[in-house]
Structure formats: C-alpha cells, structure tokens
Amino acid sequence: MTLRTRRILSLIFIILFLAITPVIMFYAVGYRLSKNGLAIQKTGMFIIDSKPRGAKIFIDGKPQTTWFSSIFNKKNFMSTPAKIKNLLPGEYNLRLELGGYWNWQKKLTVNSGASTFAENIYLFKNDLPAQIAPAATKSIHLSPDKNQAVILSAELITFFNLANEAEKSVKRNDITGKNILWSQSQTKIIIDNYLYDLADLSSVIDLKKLTANSFNYKWIGGALYYQDKNSIYRLEASGLPKKIINYKIFNDYLIKNNYIHLIIKSGAAANLEVIDAVTGQNLKTINLPTALNYSFINAEQNLLNLYDHSHKILYLIDPLAVYQPLVEIINNVKTAFWINSSNLLYTNDFEIWLYNLETKNKILLTRIADTINQAILHPSKDYIIYSTEQTINAIELDEREKRNITELIKFDSINSFILTNEILYFSGKIGNAEGLYKFFIQ
Fold this sequence. Notes:
Blueprint: H1 3-28, E1 31-33, E2 40-42, E3 44-51, E4 56-59, E5 62-63, H2 67-72, E6 82-87, E7 90-97, E8 104-110, E9 115-122, E10 130-133, E11 137-142, E12 148-153, E13 156-161, E14 167-171, E15 180-182, E16 188-191, E17 194-197, E18 200-206, H3 207-210, E19 215-220, E20 223-227, E21 231-235, E22 241-246, E23 250-256, E24 259-266, E25 269-276, E26 282-288, E27 294-297, E28 304-308, E29 313-317, E30 326-330, E31 335-338, E32 343-347, E33 351-356, E34 362-367, E35 374-377, E36 383-387, E37 391-396, E38 405-410, E39 413-420, E40 423-430, E41 433-440
Parallel strand pairs: 3-9
Antiparallel strand pairs: 1-2, 3-6, 4-5, 4-7, 7-8, 10-41, 11-12, 12-13, 13-14, 15-16, 16-17, 17-18, 19-20, 20-21, 21-22, 23-24, 24-25, 25-26, 27-28, 28-29, 29-30, 31-32, 32-33, 33-34, 35-36, 36-37, 37-38, 39-40, 40-41
C-alpha cells in the first residue's frame, strides 16, 4: 500500500469518525432524527413491568429485541420488566403477551425527554375454573380477614376455611341468608336472626327469643347490637340483652365515635338525629328528603353514608358540620363501597362509577348491556372485578386511552363470588355441573 493510499484511507476514517461520533453521542444522550429526517428530537422511554413478569413486549405489533440480539442477529426478545429507550415522541401501541394469560394492550404516548410508565399491569390467567363443591350454592360471604367463607346451599350452611379448604356444615332449616354479618374477631356470625359460634356450631342462639321482634343486627366495637321497633339493645357477655336507648320509632341506627345516629320517620317527614351516646342528649336534627326507606351503609367511612332505597340515592353527610352537613348527593346507586378514604366505587344496573370525595368528580368506568350484580376491588387496587348473570370480568383503573376489560369466566349462570389473594371463588352452573368453583386469576 502506497503512502498516498494510506493518507486517503486515513482521511476517510477521520471524516467518518467526525461524521458518526456526533450521531452516536446524540443517540447516547437521547436524541434521534425525527421521522421525516429533517430535525433532531429528544427521545423518551417506556418503563414496563407486569405481574407476573416475563411477558413478551410488542410495540406497534413488533416484538422488541435486546441490543445484543440486534448486533449478533439473535432472537433475544425483551420481556417485563424492561426499559425501552430512544423512542421518538408520539403514540405507540404497547402489547404484552405471556403464555397461559390474557394479552394486555394499550395505546400510550411517549413525550420528549420523559418516561412513560406502564408498571401496574396485571395479567390474568386464561384457564378453566375447578369445581370444589358439587352443590346448588346460593351465595358466598367472605369473612373480614378473607380467611373464611360461609356458603349457603339449598339445605346446608357450610363454613369453609379458605387456607386448607376444610369445611363443616349445619342444616339450613328456615334460614334465608338475607342478613349475614361476621364479628370483627371472625369467631361468630349472624345469619338472619341466629347467632353462631364457629367453635361450636351446636351453640346457636335465636336472637328473636331473647328479644321479640328484634332485627337490624350490627357488630360495633366487638359487641352485638340490634333493635326492635323503638329501642336499641346490646348483647352483654352474660348472653342477655341490655337496652341502651328507648326512643321513638326509627328506621335505622348507627353507633359511631360516641354518637348514636337515628333515622326518624314521622308521617311524610324524615330526620337524622345525632345523640350523645353517654348523656343521651339530642345534639342535632337534620332534615332529610321524604323517602320510605333509609339505611346507613359503609359504617367504617368518616362521613355518614345514608342510602335511600326507594330512589336509589346515596347521601354523604357530615353530621357535626356547623352550616352544611350535606357533602354530596349521588344518584342511581345500586351498590357502593369505598376503595379508600377518598374514592367511592358505586354501580347501578349497567354502569360502574368512581367518585372522588376531594375533587367531587364522578368518572364512568364502564357501561355494558348486561346487568351488573356485584363489584369488588382487586387486591392490587388497580383493577375492579365485577360480575353479570353469566360472566366475571376485570376492568383496569388506568384511564389512559381505554380501560382494558378481561372476561375471566363465562358460565351459564353465576350467583355470587369472593376474591381472596389470587383465588376467585364463585357459585355457578355450566351445563349440568353446578356448585362452588375455584379459579386462580394469576
């Protein structure tokens, strides 16, 4: 090779170095040519994670590969968790796939110089439920600690331990199962007007024999309370009732924070009375809209949740507010529960809504053609599980682009369900197989 040739080659390498090095440096710090090639743009990135991990990542239909595979032409696909860098600003269709699970897909925007997070992705199993009890199960009710369930079938009441699937049963007799309340200790349970001790199911107390016409049983602070037409009673350790208030006729009561709240109905008028539980003094009377049937729900919430069954209206009330006790009115409510202290999830026959107490915003999560029977919060707090007459579904709370809805189960009929950890228990029928089923959602 002549000296002139070497000089030419050296000059070419210098020119290439000067041309390529800035490009590499710009790419390394997050800059790329725009799609039209006329400008340099600051890129962004995806930060992706899923549960379970190991899901294959697709962007705009293309599987993402590692840097190593692009250099050595190997098929090393990227999976969750992952960071995908140097993406030009814009919208991307992100999809995750994992064998044995339903796919997840969403259109997300990558902004210049920013990270777009998709970390709270829960992949649900695409599998079949297993029958664990072949019986005509009518309903299932979960204990507060989610370790036990009471199952009502046509003839039996079954207490089911979810940890080891041990069970013990008693005859159902005349019990309807319309009123089921676990004690805070989960050692006792009220079913209709009967008090069962789970340590000894033969030790059952008919509360109507203690107090004739008793109803509206409630566990409050570890004690059992109930009412008759115009009095409230507390069941003492001796097993005998003690009358704690003798009042005029009231529809419902709530004992909370040393106050007794009563819904008083007189003729066409209805009032909420706030009474000092120690002195019995009436502290305040709040006028209510005329309705036939009010009751207190969601007793654990700071505000009083007063539900008008006749008109399906939920009133949120601060009973000790000086000027304006009425905080919010929510119409067309079938079921309602608080996800946390600020967010209320409520349903009607065909819709699921989320209400934020701080912003007063009401957000429609979904509207479907089938009647919604039940809705609960997924343990991750990023999804809602809800049922219809024939399906159990999961809807995510991430409101970007669209909310993914996954049909987990489809049966000929589904009565009720409970969710504990990663296991979904439900009563249903498919073909001739009817009973209690277990389904691992992950």
